[in-house]
Write a structure and sequence with these properties.
The structure is a single chain. This protein has one domain. Strands 1-2-3 form a three-stranded antiparallel beta sheet, with no helix packed on it. It has 60 residues and is of the alpha+beta class. The two termini are 20 Å apart. The longest helix is centred in the last third of the chain and has 14 residues.
C-alpha cells in the first residue's frame, strides 16, 4: 500500500477484499467498505507500511 500512498494517508484499494478485511481487523486501515476508490491508513498502518517498504523494496 505504501507504493500507492497519496495525501499522506490514502492508498488505492486494488486489493482482494479478504486482504483489506484482515488489514482492517488488525487496525492498519479504516473500514474499507465504502464508495471510495482508496482506503485510509491508520497511524499504525502507515508506520508499518513504511517499515515494510524500506525493509523489502528500498535499496540500502
Amino acid at each position: 500500500m505504501y507504493l500507492t500512498l497519496h495525501d499522506e494517508v490514502r492508498a488505492w484499494k486494488g486489493f482482494p477484499w479478504e486482504a483489506t478485511d484482515r488489514l482492517y481487523e488488525n487496525g492498519f486501515i479504516e473500514n474499507p467498505v465504502n464508495q471510495n476508490k482508496s482506503v485510509v491508513l491508520t497511524e499504525k498502518g502507515r508506520i508499518e507500511a513504511e517499515k515494510m517498504f524500506k525493509r523489502l523494496l528500498a535499496k540500502v
